[in-house]
Structure formats: C-alpha cells, structure tokens
Amino acid sequence: MVERNHRQQYPDMVTFDLPDKITLEKAATDHSFQITEFVDEPTFYLAVLKLKERGVPNQ
C-alpha cells in the first residue's frame, strides 16, 4: 500500500522491491558482507551490512 502510493506520487523515481532477509543474506555472503542489523516493517526497512575482513572468521 505504502509502496503503491509512493510510486503514484513520485513516478519519475526508480523504486525496487526490497529483498527479504534470506535473499539479502545470500547476496551479502556472496559478496563478502555480513548483516549486522535488519528490520523489515510495513513502513520502515533497514539493512546494515559490514564488509568481512579476509582471514577473520564470521562473528
């Protein structure tokens, strides 16, 4: 609902569906990142990722 209203108000803005946590974890891992914080609510989405250092095991 919010996304549809946003697209109607701002048709020139490029918007994409945001990934769920499982999809984001897969993409992050494939590119040497790890998720440190994730919130997916109807009106708020937050994903904080951290670059993994080489040679340092996952924490």
Poorly predicted runs: none
- Could you give the count of β-strands? 2
Distance between the termini: 37 Å
Main beta sheet: strand number and arrangement?
2 strands, antiparallel
Salient structural properties:
two-stranded antiparallel ribbon, 31% helix, 59 residues, single chain, 2 strands, alpha+beta
Secondary structure topology:
Elements: H1 2-9, H2 21-30, E1 33-41, E2 44-51
Antiparallel strand pairs: 1-2
Could you please describe the fold and organization of this structure?
The protein is α+β, with helices and mostly antiparallel strands and 59 residues long. The protein has one domain (17-59). The chain has 2 helices and 2 strands. The chain has helices at 2-9, 21-30; strands at residues 33-41, 44-51. A hairpin with a 2-residue loop joins strand 1 (33-41) and strand 2. The longest helix is centred in the middle third of the chain and has 10 residues, at 21-30. The termini are far apart. The model has no long low-confidence stretch (mean pLDDT 85).
Give a short overview.
By secondary structure, this protein is α+β, with helices and mostly antiparallel strands. It is built from two helices and two strands; from the N terminus they run ααββ.
